[in-house]
Design a protein that fits this description.
Chain A is mostly helical. Chain A contains 17 helices and five strands. Classes of the chains: A mainly alpha, B alpha+beta. Chains A and B meet through helix 1, helix 4, helix 9, helix 10 and helix 11 of A and helix 1, helix 3 and helix 4 of B.
Chain lengths: ~325, ~210
């Protein structure tokens, strides 16, 4: 637990793997359909080069890609790896409320993410969601704008907004009979639009929402979708309310430099021990801490490790005022 | 009395803030609605009386639930499209309205080969594994005014040869030379439509949702 400082880099690695999964699976599926049709030998030009390269790589691993490639399908919204199916809990919530019927084979596919969320909280957002990675890249542009002297605005809304989005989505699905979450949920949009691009050569309508949200991220409000609008984030926050793994602070080492509060993408305050339900354990605050005062530890509540220093009284911290 | 206006201001501010929260929470749905205009529209009064939506009638992949339940159950993941080895499964874009991002099959472009991979990969139970002969995607209908053997006794029979179900689904008329007709076991896969040599397709699939009231 001592070398936890670089958890942020492990997270970038995991996110990259997930994005590669999302990008590669539709291409492999397209390749599989071409192999099934014996179409590669009749192709011409760059298309032939492209698919022959994939063919050479895939045949190193699999003997019979026509059938063996069935084992990897899907995206982060709903994936099939081997015989294991994993779905987003939000998909289960939306489907059950819109169909008003329990189809257990589907509900059980969300069991693994559900259990992980109960233990680790909103870890999907920070570690797996491709939308969060996209907005983090947008954050780099935000910093560049800051450095160039154009101050992007940072409008803050109530964090309760995302719960209202979740409830509204459930109500709309219940009344009108149909899923609305995949139309507004960034990871579902990203994987679907990439699938459309690979298969049909053009994006669908969801890319507009994605670009609007990226624009908002860069210029109007930092991580606005994740903080205020994402229904999946709301569901994970609710599930992770009593999570076991938390970011905790050692007050004896902490110098109250407030770097962790500045760097937090979700606008939380690890320095005042106010991470709450929203923390996605991304580790940005741990990487930013100059004195290694923050660690990931077991804990039922957001309490500091060890006694508080006398000059930081509890009333002041709750009010959010930082005693320097 | 002096403090009262300030209190009222505070109260109004709080009400305004919570209203703003609700309005902002509706923004994503509004945008999604703008992008696919009839994506989640209300039932009209006439439809409510008839207890149904005015659905479009797409041909769904094999093993699909009835049209209304299919729309409720589909989670729009696109796994069926990925698993289809002949790329027969397509998806509605924003032009589909309520049906946006749900799968359909257009037999004029590519018919379904009934390989059974999409029901296996579907997580949500909108498509459920089913035997090839029990699939009910629709029924084929032959237009005898444009089918070549029916008009002038020409030699074709492509639809009968390509049918994966065989003679219990489509057969030649007894004594008639290559004149095909459709039997009850037709599942509506649409391969016959795909191979029909007539430029405007003498054989068509009428989707299941138009023929069966559930």
């Amino acid at each position: 637990m001592t070398k936890i400082k670089h958890i942020n880099k492990i997270r970038y690695f995991v996110q990259t793997l997930v994005v590669l999964f999302i990008l590669i699976v539709p291409i492999l599926s397209l390749y599989q359909s071409k192999v099934s049709a014996y179409a590669i030998q009749w192709m011409q030009g760059s298309e032939k080069v492209f698919f022959e390269t994939i063919d050479n790589v895939v045949r190193l691993i699999l003997d019979d890609p026509k059938n063996d490639l069935d084992m990897v399908k899907g995206s982060v919204w709903s994936a099939q790896i081997g015989t294991l199916k994993i779905s987003d809990p939000l998909a289960v919530v939306g489907q059950v409320t819109s169909e008003k019927h329990f189809y257990w084979p589907f509900i059980l596919t969300a069991l693994i993410p559900f259990g992980i969320t109960l233990l680790f909280g909103r870890i999907f957002c920070g570690w797996i969601c491709p939308g969060y990675l996209l907005y983090e890249i947008g954050d780099i542009f935000r910093q560049l704008l800051n450095r160039a002297g154009i101050k992007p605005r940072n409008i803050k809304l109530s964090p309760l907004t995302k719960y209202i989005v979740l409830v509204l989505g459930v109500i709309i699905g219940f009344v009108l009979g149909g899923m609305v979450f995949p139309m507004i949920y960034p990871p579902a949009i990203i994987s679907r639009e990439w699938y459309y691009l690979v298969y049909t050569g053009s994006f669908g309508s969801g890319i507009t929402l994605l670009l609007i949200s990226l624009f908002i991220e860069i210029s109007v409000s930092r991580r606005a979708v994740c903080r205020y609008l994402c229904p999946g984030g709301a569901l994970y926050s609710l599930l992770g309310k009593f999570r076991v793994i938390r970011i905790r602070r050692k007050p004896s080492v902490c110098t109250s430099c407030i770097k962790c509060n500045d760097v937090c993408g979700l606008g939380l305050k690890p320095m005042q021990d106010l991470t709450g339900m929203d923390c996605n354990t991304c580790g940005a605050c741990i990487a930013a801490c100059p004195t290694d005062a923050l660690t990931i530890r077991l804990g039922w509540s957001d309490s500091p490790l060890g006694p508080l220093e006398p000059n930081k009284s509890k009333e002041k911290r709750v009010n959010g005022e930082v005693p320097y | 009395m002096e403090k009262f206006p300030i209190k009222r201001r505070v109260l109004l501010g709080k009400v305004g803030k919570s209203l703003m929260t609700f309005i902002i929470a509706g923004v994503p749905f509004g945008l999604a609605r703008q992008l696919s205009p009839t994506a989640f529209s209300q039932q009209t009064k006439a439809e409510k009386k008839l207890n149904r939506y005015d659905y479009q009638h797409p041909i769904r992949p094999p093993g699909a639930l009835s049209e209304q339940r299919f729309l409720q159950a589909c989670i729009q993941c696109g796994n069926c499209g990925q698993s289809c080895p002949v790329q027969a499964i397509q998806f509605y874009g924003n032009e589909g309205g309520k049906l946006a991002h749900t799968p359909y099959i257009q037999p004029e472009i590519k018919g379904c080969t009934l390989c059974g991979k999409c029901p296996e990969v579907c997580p949500s139970g909108a498509l459920r594994p089913i035997e090839m002969t029990n699939v009910s995607m629709g029924k084929a209908k032959i237009d005898r005014r444009s089918c070549y053997p029916w008009i002038d006794g020409g030699i074709c029979g492509a639809c009968a040869i390509v049918c994966p179900i065989g003679k219990s689904a489509i057969d030649f008329q007894f004594g008639g030379f290559y004149k095909p007709f459709v039997k009850d076991k037709c599942v509506g896969c649409g391969l016959c439509v795909e191979v029909c040599p007539h430029p405007f397709k003498a054989i068509q699939i009428s989707p299941q949702s138009t023929t069966v009231i559930s």
